[in-house]
Amino acid sequence: MKNILLTGIGNALVDLEYRVTDAELASFGVSKGAMTLTEPSRQHDMIQALGERDVHRCSGGSAANTIIAFAQFGGSAAYASLLGADHFGNFYASEFKDLGIVLNAEQVSGATTGSCLVLITPDSERTLNTTLAINTDFSASHVDENLIKASEWVYIEGYKLTDDNGAEAVDHALFYAKKHDTRVAISCSDGFIIDVFGDRLRSVLQRADLVFCNEREGTGLAQTDSVHDAYNYLVATYPNAVLTAGAEGSRVRWNGLDAEIPAYKVQPVDTTGAGDMYAGAFLYGVLHRHHPEHAGRLASYASAQVVAQYGARLRASHIDVRDTVLANATTIA
């Protein structure tokens, strides 16, 4: 019996968010706006260099942010990952329990929970420095066939393809999904996934029912500079697709229906988690049978509100946002 609408598979990371100047960011020698895999010692040194300034902490990881959003909009959800048996691991597990999300994540004795140092510059751009820690041990043996069998959909982040264990785990998850008629949504996650792990990603996307890309990822997949051509490539290649383009809005294809979604103008504060929020809101909308245009508007509005605040979690009531945007929306049989 399928009693979970959406299960996510991805990294479990405790996000540590700091505001920095452009000069401070440059001093760390990282690529602005990108995600860099960082050794624990290096991340520790960076945090030490930031001193005693305020830090915002929350449980995250790209797919986790999407699953959290989906659940807070009212969807039934689960998440599969790995945690350390440490303070961060306890914090993470406690948050998911409070959020009512089924967490399938062993806390491994002697292991360290993953973390992500998020550096936010005055232009609201976020630069991610990720220490995967125990996440790199997540392999095929950690993929729970019964959890996938119980799920209508599984959502997988492209970040899991950055190591052999994760790629093997994704392959097993896709095998179980096909076996148990569970549909698959995949996020490309980051442009560097296409640049460095493109072959793995394309192989995985061939088995996807829904693909999420931003402008950088979509044009990378399509090998074009045109967002329009990238969208045409996506909808010609995959059953369903979402292509977001920041202030230019987004385009979606769902069950043969296309929609162009406007962006909502806000004063940007922090772009952390905007794409994850978009995916969670869109999935909530279409999986509850709303027209893709309405689901896209919910996603666009919710992600804009995330950009207008500090942190990846929507501070406004998800239910109020959902009901306001979908108040006059009809559902599709």
Tell me, rounded to a whole number, the average pLDDT. Answer: 94
Distance between the termini: 21 Å
Q: Give Rg in angstroms.
A: 18 Å
Beta-strand portion reads 15-25%
Major beta-sheet overview: 9 strands, mixed
Count of extended strands: 14
Write the H/E string, N to C.
Answer: EEHEHEHEHEEEHEHEHEHHEEEHHH
What is the CATH class? Answer: Alpha Beta
Poorly predicted residue ranges: none
CATH architecture: 3-Layer(aba) Sandwich
Q: What is the helical fraction, as a range of percent? A: 40-55%
Structural account:
With 333 residues, the protein is α/β, with parallel strands linked by helices. The chain has a single domain (4-10, 62-108, 133-325), classed as UDP-N-acetylmuramoyl-L-alanine:D-glutamate ligase. Helices cover 40% and strands 24% of the residues. It has twelve helices and 14 strands. The protein has helices at residues 22-27, 40-50, 62-72, 87-99, 145-149, 164-179, 191-205, 215-222, 227-237, 274-287, 292-307, 318-325; strands at 4-9, 13-19, 35-37, 56-60, 77-84, 102-108, 114-120, 126-131, 151-157, 183-187, 210-214, 241-244, 250-254, 257-261. The strands form two sheets. The chain has a nine-stranded mixed sheet, with helices on both faces. The chain has a five-stranded mixed sheet with strand order 3-8-7-2-4. The relative contact order is 0.14. The model has no long low-confidence stretch (mean pLDDT 94).
Descriptive keywords:
333 residues; alpha/beta; 9-stranded mixed beta sheet; single chain; UDP-N-acetylmuramoyl-L-alanine:D-glutamate ligase
